[in-house]
Amino acid sequence: MDIEAPPLDRQRVIPDRERRGLVIVHAGPGPGPGVGPGVGVGKGKGKGKGKGKGTAAFGLALRAHGRGEPVRIFQRMKVPSVRFGEHRVFERLGTPIEGLGDGFSGTSRDLEVYAQLARDAWARAEQAIRGGEPFLVVLDESMYPRRDGWLPLEPVLVCLRERPPHVHVVLTGRACPQALVDVADTVTEMAKVKHAYDAGVPAQRGIEDRCRLRSRCAVRSPSTVPSASRPPGRTPSSRWAAPSARWARG
């Protein structure tokens, strides 16, 4: 590693504008064509391989909560019954994460229900943002409904522009559209350099805190799985109704 001298002659830039609410984006890498300038985010379906988009947003939420500021956290993809580590700690802090989804569209058993959940989820988030009560609103996994075509981008942009001036909003997800980059104040791209999963190390509780194979069915509640979509013989008292004991321990 190269040794660098301390920047003793660096001139400090003193901000001269008033403090205000910010729009902050934690995005995954975008695709090759249509990539936004300098930030690697664009309009298409990027794979977003970088770890830490939601993790960084939760860190901001903890920082705001530690200062006594009201926080609302919405997760677009997670079902309300999910119990990962972040859900447990925010619940103990009195700021529960609000799961608004039914999993990823690729695992959804009813895409129309999935689409309606996306619209309902945005309505709740928009009400929180426009209401002005929270200091910080986190919209985790918020790019996916737009990417999948369930939610148009324009209402989101309008809400962000018209929100009360003190409200900060953090959005996370893959392939952030350029129009959102233009509205945002701070945009960070989470790009993977290395990941333990590629070396054969599975997801671990307390680190990734989720398992793709079990999440397809273990965290769904009966209300989010149409009865016609359940396998024959399965009832709400089966594994479709609630997480297994091992999964519930997170």
General description of the model:
α3 (111-131) packs parallel to α5 (154-162). The chain has a six-stranded parallel β-sheet, with helices on both faces. The radius of gyration is 20 Å and the shape is globular. The protein is α/β, with parallel strands linked by helices. 35% of the residues are buried. The protein has a domain at 23-34 and 46-193 and 202-210: P-loop containing nucleotide triphosphate hydrolases (Rossmann fold, 3-Layer(aba) Sandwich). The protein contains eight helices and six strands, in the order βαβαβαβααβαβαα. It is 28% helix and 11% strand.
TL;DR of this structure?
With 250 residues, this protein is an alpha/beta fold.
CATH classification class of the domain at 23-34 and 46-193 and 202-210: Alpha Beta
The total of helices stands at 8
As a percent range, the share of helical residues equals: 25-40%
Determine the CATH superfamily of the domain at 23-34 and 46-193 and 202-210: P-loop containing nucleotide triphosphate hydrolases
Overall mean confidence score, pLDDT: 76
The biggest beta sheet is recorded as: 6 strands, parallel
Total count of strands: 6
